[in-house]
Design a protein that fits this description.
Layout lengths: L2 H13 L17 H15 L5 H6 L3 H10 L6
């Protein structure tokens, strides 16, 4: 599974939305700090990457945060 698919799955689960587009904005979807913290933990547990809070704010879409994670060299099991 591609990083973007895994990120999308995490976002859908944590934001409790089924139809999130890759360019939907986290904050426009109702995202807030508690959900962001849950997504950060999921990235660590499920993707093995630690994404800093500033990058979460700078990359508020599935597409942009996936690109950031891929740039970190995250493995795709």
């Amino acid at each position: 599974m591609m990083i973007a698919d895994r990120v999308h799955s995490i976002w859908c689960r944590e934001l409790q939305h089924d139809n999130i587009a890759v360019d939907d904005n986290f904050f426009a979807l109702g995202g807030q700090s508690v959900i962001m913290a849950k997504i950060q933990m999921a990235f660590i547990e499920e993707l093995g990457v630690e994404v800093p809070v500033d990058q979460m704010f700078l990359n508020p879409t599935v597409a942009s945060i996936s690109a950031y994670i891929e740039s970190m060299g995250a493995a795709t099991p």
